[in-house]
Design a protein that fits this description.
binds FE2/S2 (inorganic) cluster, Ubiquitin-like (UB roll), binds iron/sulfur cluster
Length: 481
């Protein structure tokens, strides 16, 4: 450790840190565009300039904090007259050709260029020349649109594909104010399964999600902490949905209960600041047609009648078997074990397999197991044997199937079936009792990932009437009356 000074205050720093890193760690703010804690340092935007003080009152100089190593006794100023003047000049330069698009830009509310402009510049452009125009709508991929006029050429997106996703899919073409971000021509960016991270790290509104384009202003939305269920990594995410105080009544009310977008929630022990595109598409997974009606032999029944029927089947069974969901939360698994674990021979099943064309596994985040909580389920119950006959003894007379992914054709033909699921599918009507259960965006809980790290998820929406919470349902099914 060494000591240096920021604005006259002593700061302890590691010897290999930069002034930017040490400032961030000690709570001193220095603005930045091109610097990113997980990427290499190009030093191209110059907004992070700080003044280096010279002992004895000599004339100090300005240099960039993101690439300045700390040294013992170094003294820097982050808000001197010189620094403020340099920031203003830098912002004048960066906005020279930048359009005044904030009113229609999806990045408004999250744009550091807008924030820094108001904090450090605030003046109209001093340029007498017309702005240089560039491509306003360039299809970078099927998922992302690029507005080259808004791009400040920080190269974060380029470095992301070189250093993190390792597709080398983006680059800069041409020189000076004709420079443009462009994808390489072999389609690598289209196939980069981490591509949408460039939307988050772009400091301006140059890279935008087509799925979210002009859907909502971010200040109408609220991020709820959650966990991606797409694989056993369990990446921490924020699910963005409409704030209750901004609920729509006259317009499409369905927008009040939909996932507007998904972004990473940084967790160094799980996913760092990244997620793969599967998490961005969570709405496709969780907003499938829902099952909301309890059924008895395919006929609608009241929720309490369905519970009573399932309870009676469980009490009367001689050799009941349960297929436990690898999507159930830690709380639901514990509730099942406590209420029904002694009654059933229980096995953990696979709810989801990789979809055709999906990346099975890689060195960054993606895991081959496409179920979020198999680790916690296997800590309580054995896995479902490959041969069905090993799970279902000849006298098996009841199977409780929890979650999707298991064909009823594999069940003993004479066994009764109690089925818990969230989605509309034909099997629901073939069960003796069907009990619709909530999805993760309607309840809180925890998942344990393949490395044993536990992450929490919070509810975003109310569950539909008629739908059960599995945790309470198991307790109810386990009671004798
Ligand atoms: S598109 Fe965004 S991230 Fe990429 S260079 Fe331009 S400003 Fe930076
Ligand atoms: S790596 Fe797995 S858990 Fe992480 S975002 Fe992708 S699918 Fe979700
Ligand atoms: S943040 Fe330091 S030069 Fe860009």
């Amino acid at each position: 450790m060494l000591e240096f000074f920021i604005n006259g205050q002593p700061v302890q720093a590691e010897e290999d840190q930069t002034v930017m890193q040490a400032a961030k760690a000690s709570g001193h703010f220095i603005p930045y565009f091109c610097w990113h804690p997980q990427l290499s340092i190009p030093g191209n935007c110059r907004i992070c300039a700080v003044e280096v003080e010279v002992e004895g009152g000599g004339i100090g100089w300005l240099d960039i904090a993101c690439n300045m190593p700390v040294s013992p006794g170094l003294r820097v100023l982050t808000d001197s007259d010189k620094v403020r003047a340099r920031r203003k000049e830098t912002l004048q330069f960066i906005t020279l050709n930048h359009p005044v698009d904030c009113g229609i830009c999806d990045k408004a509310g999250e744009c550091t260029l807008q924030d820094y402009h108001y904090a450090y510049n605030g003046s109209p452009s001093t340029s007498l020349d017309a702005k240089v125009h560039a491509t306003k709508h360039y299809d970078l991929s099927q998922r992302i649109v690029l507005d080259n006029e808004r791009c400040i050429l920080c190269t974060r997106c380029v470095r992301f594909t070189r250093e993190i996703s390792k597709t080398n899919a983006l680059g800069v073409i041409s020189r000076g104010d004709h420079s443009l971000i462009r994808p390489v021509e072999d389609g690598a960016f289209e196939n980069d399964v981490y591509s949408d991270n460039v939307i988050d790290i772009c400091p301006v509104g140059a890279l935008l999600s087509k799925a979210f384009l002009h859907k909502a202003r971010v200040w109408y939305l609220k991020p709820s902490p959650s966990v991606c269920p797409g694989c056993a990594r369990g990446c921490n995410i924020d699910i963005w949905h409409r704030k209750s105080e901004w609920r729509l009544t006259a317009l499409d009310a369905k927008q009040n209960a939909r996932i507007d977008r998904v972004t990473p929630r940084e967790n160094a022990a799980v996913n760092g600041p990244w997620i793969c595109n599967k998490a961005r598409d969570l709405a496709r997974l969780l907003e499938r047609a829902r099952a909301i009606q309890p059924l008895r032999k395919g006929q609608p029944v009241e929720p309490q009648a369905a519970i009573a029927a399932a309870r009676s089947l469980i009490q009367d069974a001689h050799r009941p078997v349960a297929l436990v969901s690898s999507w159930g939360s830690n709380e639901e698994l514990a509730a099942f074990q406590q209420a029904l674990g002694g009654r059933f021979s229980s096995f953990v099943k696979t709810d989801c397999e990789a979809e055709p064309g999906e990346v099975l596994e890689d060195d960054l985040l993606i895991r081959a197991d496409k179920n979020p909580n198999r680790a916690a389920a296997l800590a309580l119950f054995p896995p479902l044997p490959e041969a069905d006959v090993a799970a279902f003894p000849p006298d098996c007379d009841l199977v409780l199937v929890w979650g999707e992914g298991f064909s009823f054709a594999q069940l003993p033909p004479t066994a009764k079936i109690v089925f818990l699921n969230s989605w509309l599918q034909p099997e629901n009507g073939h069960a003796d009792v069907f009990l619709p259960v909530s999805v993760m965006t309607e309840r809180s809980g925890h998942y344990t990932n393949f490395e044993g790290v536990v992450s929490a998820f919070e509810p975003c929406f109310a569950k539909p009437p008629g739908v059960f919470d599995a945790e309470a349902l198991f307790a109810s099914l386990g009671r004798s009356t």
